[in-house]
Every structure is written in C-alpha cells, then in structure tokens.
C-alpha cells in the first residue's frame, strides 16, 4: 500500500518546521526531484542488494539547526517519495562521516527506490575529515562536534525525519528503520543503547562499536616492526602471507574454496614463511619475505598486546585484507594520515606517531579508552529498554574484515547474551566467512539482511538464516549464514545449493 502526495505540498511554506528540544532550527528548504534514476550496486547498498532505481519523484527537505551555545550547524536531509510505502529508513555514515557523504546517494537512492522515506545527517561536520574540526586549538578537542558525531545528532535525526514525514503525509510512519554498516553500524548500536524508541528495527552491520579500542588497535601492527628495529614491510609481502594463510587453513572446514571458515583453528605461523621466495605484485620481481612482514601479520592477527604481553584488544582473522598495513617500494609509514592518536588522544596535530615506543603506545591506548568511551563507544551490553520497546536488531560481520575485528562484535554479542538470556528474541548476529568490510572479498554479502529485519519487525518472523552467494576458488555457490553461535554444516553433496547446509548449535 502506498501513500500518494501532490507536488504542491513540497514547499517550505507547506511543511511544518520540526521541533527538537535543545535545538534551534535555522532553515528549512524543500524542492521536488523528478525522474530520479540511479543504479545502486550491492557493494554500496549495505544490508540490501543491487537495485535499479527508475524515475522516482520525491520531495527533498533539508533542515539546518544548531544547539545554542555549542557553535554547531547540523544538516539533516530527508527524501519524501511521492509514492510512499508508509515507512521511514534512516541511513548512517562511514569512516569519520556521520552521513550525508559520498555514499549517501546510494543508501538513500536504494531506500527511495523501494518507496521508503529516507534520511541522513552530517552531524555538523559536513563531508570533512577530523583534521578540519577535531581541535579548537592545540591541546583542546572540539568536544561539541565529537558529541554530535558520537551520539547527539542521531536522536535529532530521528525526531526531525519523523516530524517531516508526519507533516508531509499527514500521518507518522507505520514503522521506522535504521540501516548502516561500519560507522553506520556503530551508530545503529548507539541508537539501540541510548535511544531505544527511535527505531523499530536496526540493521547495524560490521559495527565499530568499541571505537576507542579498535581505532587505537589499528596502529599496533604498523608500529610493531619499528619497535623491533625493522622497516615497514611491502604491501605485496602481506598479500603473499595472506595467500599462504589461506592455503594452510582453507581445508580446515572440509571445503577447499579459498575461504577460511574456521579462523579460530587456523594455526598458520607467519614466521614459517620468512625467506620464502615469491613474486612481488608491485615490482614484478622475485623477493624473499622479510621478518618485518611476519611481525606485522602476527601483530594484525593477534591484536595489540602490552609490553608485558597483556591483552588490549582483538586482532583481525587470518585471511583478512591486511595489505594496507604495508607500504609501496621505497616508502615507509608516516604520520601524515593520522586521524586519531595525534588529534584526539595527544591533541597535537604535528605529533609523529612513528616515534612512539611500545610503552608510550600502551599508555595512550588506556588513555583513549578512558577519555572517549562515553562519547564514541557503542558497547553497552544493556539493551533492556530496546527489547522492552519491541525493537529488533540485526548485525552481520565479515570474518575476513581487515578493518574491524569480528571478535569484537562476538564479544559484544556474548556480553548482551549474559544480561539477556533470550537475546535471540530481539538481536541476531551473523558471521560471513570470507566477506571483507561491509562488502567485497570472496565471502557472501547478506543482501537480504534488511528484508529479513523488516519481516522480523512487522511479521514476527525471526531470520533463521541469511542466504548468501560466495565466490570461492571453485566458482559461485549458494551458502547460508547462521545466527551466532550456530554454524552452517554441510549435509552432503558438493555444496552448490543452500539446501545442503543447515544451522547447527
């Protein structure tokens, strides 16, 4: 059933100004967009699949507002389709962007193509990186902006979008949803924890929920070889080590397909490959694997440890893409792209992170967790209020994700389970072997995750599995992902069809 609105309603004078407690609306603009057409690829439509959007008419309403006394200016953009399915789908950001960035046209385009009203926010940061806003002055973090990015703008976005929907169509949305991955996944979990009534259903995939830990952990494999007196390894060396790990551990699950489905039992030792000869893809020449490459891979897979060997945070799984931890021939790592330790923890934009000792890194790791958990981390396991509100939460995570460790999300899900024994009544988490960060890799991207969430919310049909299509070394095959901790077990045959797998606890 759709709700049709005449074009005359899309004007600033016809749309009531939203009301947000603690905020002052600065401006509202509205204009019709007609015959909107866009091919949305699955790789940029997380939780959904590829979609061809054809000739959609919608009212683009853009609201700017401020929190008096905070010197901020936040923009919320909302698209209201002429043919509306009576539902709202809010979209998240990625990296350091809260939303309203380069990928938002795909997220919102896919939503509008299915009849959803859809919305995004820039949290007052625009499409900029932290070097443009993180420090008010040397030694002083712009906390107002960081709070907006962390959580404050998320509830504002929900309130504004729902007000616009109600004012435009004359009725509120029947159901409201959130869809995001990576930073968008962190935002989704933050909404479930802090604003449990904001959305009926939340798809929060590959979530960066333990933000201070995982961002600080990214430095560990970069610095590890330097602490050992080595130079940074070449990217092609880490590519070779990943291939070696795949060859060694791929057969552990009984299916040789170029995917490590059981990384917990992968016992490949990177140091066993030191001095092995291989062809470097960057140079086209043969070279021997360096000790520095083995140090880097070991650090990436183990996760950061203190000088005393204490656990700090999780590493990525063997088989994940760790090429970015290496350098091109003739280069070394620099501090030029540092966005976290120098800006937010040390509060000194000119600090060279390559000069950090292991002891200094340990201190900064703990400092980052203490200083920024309340602002940026979405790892509070108490989802009691979200459950009471009737909300449903769905997460998928690639096990070959080289950006955010799968085990961090496992840890969070287990923590929720301890507080809420019937966790699967409202929260289901799916791990995808071979899938990279949100999309990519050989593993299966769950393109039906959002549809499964909607059925769960509206029909009370909980997803027992998610179908995916993997692209292993033996070609494309249908598989399934199971709600953690269940695993898909092959029932016979060569595995080309979903029917030969079932979820087993």
From TrEMBL:
What is the enzyme's main class? hydrolase
What EC number(s) has UniProt assigned to this enzyme? Answer: 3.1.1.-
Q: What keywords sit in the KW lines?
A: Calcium, Disulfide bond, Hydrolase, Metal-binding, Serine esterase, Signal
Q: State the source organism's domain of life.
A: Eukaryota
Molecular function terms, GO-annotated: feruloyl esterase activity; metal ion binding
State whether keyword Heme applies. Answer: no
**SUPFAM superfamilies given in the database record:** alpha/beta-Hydrolases
Keyword Disulfide bond in the entry? The reply is yes
This molecule's function is given as:
Involved in degradation of plant cell walls. Hydrolyzes the feruloyl-arabinose ester bond in arabinoxylans as well as the feruloyl-galactose and feruloyl-arabinose ester bonds in pectin.
The entry sums up its family as follows: Belongs to the tannase family.
Q: What is this protein called?
A: Carboxylic ester hydrolase
Source organism: Aspergillus hiratsukae
